[in-house]
Amino acid sequence: MATDTSKYKLNRTTRCFELKIHNDPVPSIYSPTIHAKKKPSHLTINPVKFYQHLGLSLIQKIPQPAANFDLYFLAYDSPNALSHKAHWSDRQGILELTHNYGTENDPDYTTNNGNSDPGKGFGHICISVDNIQAACQRIEDAGYTFQKKLSDGKMRSIAFALDPDNYWVEILSNNDVEDTKDIKETDPSTYRLNHTMIRVKDHTKSLQFYQDMLGMSLLRTKESSSSGFNLYFLGYVPGANNDVNTAMLEGVLELTWNYGTEKDEDFKYHDGNSEPQGFGHIAITVDDLDAACQRFEEKGVRWKKRLTDGRMKNVAFVLDPDGYWVEVVQNQVLSV
Questions:
Q1: String of b and e for 25-50 (b: at least 16 CB within 10 Å)?
Q2: pLDDT (tens digit, 9 = 90+) per residue, 41-64?
Q3: Which of 56, 58, 257, 289 could pair covalently with 51 via S-S, beta carbons 3.0-4.6 A apart?
Q4: Pairing of strands 279-286, 158-162
């Protein structure tokens, strides 16, 4: 029994959301009216529709009525997509939305977007686009709001849109922003669900975990010493070195390390699963689930859930150095 980490995939990112509608958010059933230049109300828009506006498709819905939640898997699936028509377990770059029943009836329910205390930890997901000025204008014209517009601040090459639950969605350009400033059209079928960003306390421990334990490669490092932080981009790209153009990829993990946090014994990031809840976990798919879990055991991983725990015998969860959950499931295309 053996496992090959080069066959692993950073399959998806999971988070909770508030579904303020009374029917199934499939586009053929629910088509909300959004007024341009006006912020949409949570009562008239839902996160699934927001991400469909960004070009993602609902590729899988998994109802779990006995457990009082539903899962929605969204991904880029056009003929231009990197994983067009692939099985969900054989993809990178899926967004998994978790709807816990009853949140739509609670006027006080809010989700933790991970960017303010006491819930700071998870940062954002990132969509890479063809023509960033046109893409941002299209988002704004649909009535959605921004945490940061292209014109805000010093960084004029990225923007952050807000989804209906106030999670941040970075908008990143695949092309030089100077080359696209006069282009008025954008094609969402060319977009990529590029990366997930989480903050880490100790970059050395986190890099060792994701590289040695999970088998990822360090694709790119961005040092911002004047601002006091570094960014590390990792993923499953066989043969990659630390100088990869990551903008056109899917399934990338961005680790943000703020200098000095590793020296504070009491410092801790929020894992998203304790209150206040929001971010859930990332998930990797593996070639042989039993063998992968045996390898993790031999390497001394911290477990949240072993395969043998509970009723779900086809899923495991390991913990990274900051306590973020990493789901481990079988790539069904590679099933033995």
A1: beeeeeeeebeeeeebebeebbbbbb
A2: 433 458 999 999 999 999 999 999
A3: 56
A4: unpaired
User: Per the structure block, which two tokens stand in for 3?
Assistant: 């496992």
pLDDT per residue over 98-134, tens digit each? 999 998 888 888 899 999 999 999 999 999 999 999 9
Query: Is a pLDDT exceeding 50 seen at residue 277?
Result: yes
Token pair of 39 as six digits: 């912020």
Cβ within 8 Å of residue 123, ≥6 positions away: 114, 115, 168, 197, 198, 199, 254, 256
Active site residues: 170, 327
CB 18 within 8 A of CB 167: no
Q: Which residues contact 38 (CB under 8 A, 6 or more apart)?
A: 143
Q: How far apart are CA 45 and CA 28, in angstroms?
A: 15
What pTM does this model have? 0.91
Residue 296's nearest CA partner among 328, 324, 332 is 328
